[in-house]
């Protein structure tokens, strides 16, 4: 009989400590959301490299919240310390009501430690290192006026900031939400980790979702704001760019931006370092590592830990709906501002610039440039806008990093 | 709200200022680099011309003239003819190809180039 009682107590103990007894309904809803995201990543292949680890991190933290638990400090009596076969001399003591307690530290969950790369702003610049090593700034150097379009597409960020303030968000939260309009995941995470770490989950999910939805969101805006004649403009071939120009570019850009806007230096600095690895041609091993192994490793850690911030209690709130809505507005505004500035450039140059390349001013490399190419070819199948759109596209990466620097420096946090 | 409007104004001005500054700097250094490279090229051409006056060889298409001197003579005549045709197609006026050399750039093996082509094909 005692054996049966002991067995029953063991079963009860396992059940009370299991997820079935400790999880709330929010966790189960989040599990369902993570299943949908996994489906979109695997079946529909929407940004699977990021969506899959994000969705799995979301699933894991909602099944087992302890995986993201902070390290704790447990106060044990001497008897309890000895019972655990620990050496009391190794711990500091606290005396309470005449009793001596030993401060025994407890490790945090696995994701807590991996998350420090996000929390301390380490992973996004490392991702930028890889992006820099993969990016060809040649089209931008050949046509530096593309910077105008990269700058224009960032206007949506600052307009959305006002919208977020009007909806009742604090300034630091509004800045983090507005940066979604830059269409640059690592930049959004970097800014949010500095300004409003509590919103990291919803903002990262919204930013990457909209980046994945670029082919659906951008074309209607581009067509709405341009005429058939403007969409048919054929642009002149870009001049070839010499190797020395490509080598000088990252050095000059990092000096200028880091001097003027130090808060943007971590992102732009690593972006340009990666690009210098590529263009110098003398460190091909490092360049390959930055754009492959390092990028993949950081993407895994970044993805799962960002997903792990989306616990049910944090994610399922009215503010998340506001973030998703405002993120969409920011993204659309960025696209619209880029296209409208493209129209101005088209008018000023007497039809030498196709306004469709303006939409590529939001980052989302190279997807946004491919959309410019696709929409342009719908009007004129012989029109090749891709290389022209890559100029504003990579200018948008620099522009969003500059906008991030402005937000971090101007918003109190 | 006042703070939001200030940020809108400051943000737009700073982003445009920094990127417009980059436009000017890129234009200036590109002009300097191109001028320096053109100067070097002219000096090299003048030196070559002084060393040996090339004897033009007539080739198809008629607009182009080719001198089939190569680094080690390993480039087949057909390849040179194709290069001449491509050059002729690119220029509206008659051009003269003085020499054809294999690239010494460290661009890697054929496998690497094939991989590169495969990866960039969708663009």
How far is the first residue's CA from the last residue's CA of chain A?
62 Å
- What is the strand arrangement across the widest sheet of chain B? 1-2-3
Weakly predicted, low-confidence segments of chain B: 62-66
- Total DSSP E strands of chain A: 3
Beta-strand segment tally of chain B: 3
SSE order of chain B in H/E notation? Answer: HEEHEH
SSE pattern of chain A: HHHHEHEEHHHHHHHHHHHHHHHHHH
Helix content estimate of chain B: 55-70%
- The percentage of residues in β strands of chain B lies in under 5%
Report on this model:
The complex is a heterodimer of chains A (413) and B (123). By secondary structure, chain A is mainly α. Chain A folds into two domains: 72-106, no CATH class; 116-410, no CATH class. Chain A has helices spanning 2-17, 19-22, 25-42, 48-63, 78-83, 110-119, 123-134, 138-142, 146-152, 155-166, 171-178, 185-195, 200-212, 214-225, 228-231, 243-260, 265-280, 284-291, 293-308, 312-315, 318-348, 367-379, 386-410, and strands spanning 72-76, 93-96, 99-106. A three-stranded antiparallel beta sheet of chain A has the order 1-3-2. Chain B has 123 residues and is mainly alpha-helical. Chain B has three helices and three strands, in the order αββαβα. Chain B has helices at 2-51, 77-90, 110-120, and strands spanning 57-58, 65-66, 96-97. Chain B has a three-stranded mixed beta sheet, with helices on one face. Chain A binds chain B through residues 140-141, 144-145, 147-148, 150-151, 154-155, 157-159, 161-162, 165-166, 171, 174-175, 241-242, 244-245, 248-249, 252-253, 256-257, 260-261, 281, 366, 370, 386, 395, 398-399, 402-403, 406-407, 410-411, and chain B through 1, 3-5, 7-8, 10-12, 14-16, 18-23, 25-27, 29-30, 33-34, 37, 106, 123.
Feature tags:
heterodimer; A: 413 residues; mainly alpha; 2 domains; B: 123 residues
Per-chain topology:
The complex is a heterodimer of chains A (413) and B (123).
Chain A: H1 2-17, H2 19-22, H3 25-42, H4 48-63, E1 72-76, H5 78-83, E2 93-96, E3 99-106, H6 110-119, H7 123-134, H8 138-142, H9 146-152, H10 155-166, H11 171-178, H12 185-195, H13 200-212, H14 214-225, H15 228-231, H16 243-260, H17 265-280, H18 284-291, H19 293-308, H20 312-315, H21 318-348, H22 367-379, H23 386-410
Antiparallel strand pairs in A: 1-3, 2-3
Chain B: H1 2-51, E1 57-58, E2 65-66, H2 77-90, E3 96-97, H3 110-120
Parallel strand pairs in B: 2-3
Antiparallel strand pairs in B: 1-2
């Amino acid at each position: 009989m005692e054996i049966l009682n002991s067995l029953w107590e063991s079963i009860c103990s396992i059940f009370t400590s299991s997820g079935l007894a400790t999880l709330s309904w929010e966790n189960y809803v989040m599990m369902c959301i993570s299943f949908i995201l996994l489906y979109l990543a695997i079946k529909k292949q929407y940004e699977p490299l990021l969506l899959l680890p994000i969705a799995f991190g979301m699933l894991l933290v909602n099944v087992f919240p302890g995986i993201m638990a902070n390290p704790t400090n447990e106060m044990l009596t001497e008897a309890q310390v000895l019972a655990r076969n620990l050496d009391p001399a190794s711990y500091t003591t606290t005396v309470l009501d005449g009793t001596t307690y030993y401060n025994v530290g407890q490790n945090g969950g696995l994701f807590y430690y991996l998350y420090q790369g996000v929390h301390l702003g380490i992973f996004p610049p490392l991702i930028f290192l890889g992006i820099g090593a993969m990016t060809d700034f040649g089209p931008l150097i050949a046509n530096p006026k593309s910077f105008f379009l990269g700058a224009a597409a960032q206007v949506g960020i600052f307009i959305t900031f006002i919208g977020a303030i009007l909806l009742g968000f604090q300034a630091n939260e509004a800045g983090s939400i507005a940066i979604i309009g830059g269409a640059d995941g690592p930049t959004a995470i970097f800014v949010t980790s500095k300004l409003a770490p509590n919103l990291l989950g919803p903002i990262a999910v919204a930013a990457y979702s909209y980046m994945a939805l670029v082919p659906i969101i951008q074309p209607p805006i581009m067509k709405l704001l341009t005429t058939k004649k403007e969409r048919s403009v054929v642009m002149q071939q870009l001049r070839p760019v010499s190797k020395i120009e490509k080598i000088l570019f990252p050095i000059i850009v990092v000096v200028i931006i880091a001097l003027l806007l130090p808060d943007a230096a971590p992102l732009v600095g690593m972006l340009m370092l990666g690009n210098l690895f590529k263009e110098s041609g003398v460190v091909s091993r490092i360049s390959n590592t930055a754009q492959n192994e390092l990028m993949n490793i950081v993407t895994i850690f970044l993805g799962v830990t960002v997903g792990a911030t989306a616990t049910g209690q944090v994610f399922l709130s009215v503010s998340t709906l506001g973030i998703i809505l405002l993120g969409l507005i920011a993204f659309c505004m960025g696209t619209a501002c880029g296209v409208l500035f493209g129209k101005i450039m088209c008018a000023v140059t007497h039809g030498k610039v196709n306004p469709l390349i303006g939409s590529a001013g939001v980052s989302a490399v190279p997807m946004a440039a491919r959309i410019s190419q696709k929409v342009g070819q719908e009007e004129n199948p012989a029109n090749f806008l891709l290389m022209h759109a890559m100029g504003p596209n990579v200018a948008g990466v620099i522009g969003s990093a500059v906008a991030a620097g402005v937000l971090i420096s101007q918003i109190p946090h | 709200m006042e703070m939001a409007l200030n940020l809108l104004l400051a943000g737009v001005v700073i982003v445009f200022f920094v990127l417009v500054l980059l436009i000017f700097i890129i234009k200036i250094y590109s002009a300097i680099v191109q001028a320096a490279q053109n100067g070097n090229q002219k000096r090299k051409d003048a030196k070559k011309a002084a060393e040996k006056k090339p004897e033009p060889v007539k080739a198809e298409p008629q607009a182009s003239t080719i001198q089939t001197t190569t680094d080690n003579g390993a480039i087949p005549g057909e390849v040179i003819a194709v290069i001449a045709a491509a050059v002729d197609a690119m220029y509206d006026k008659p051009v003269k190809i003085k020499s054809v050399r294999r690239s010494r750039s460290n661009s890697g093996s054929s496998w690497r180039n094939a991989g590169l082509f495969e990866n960039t094909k969708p663009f």
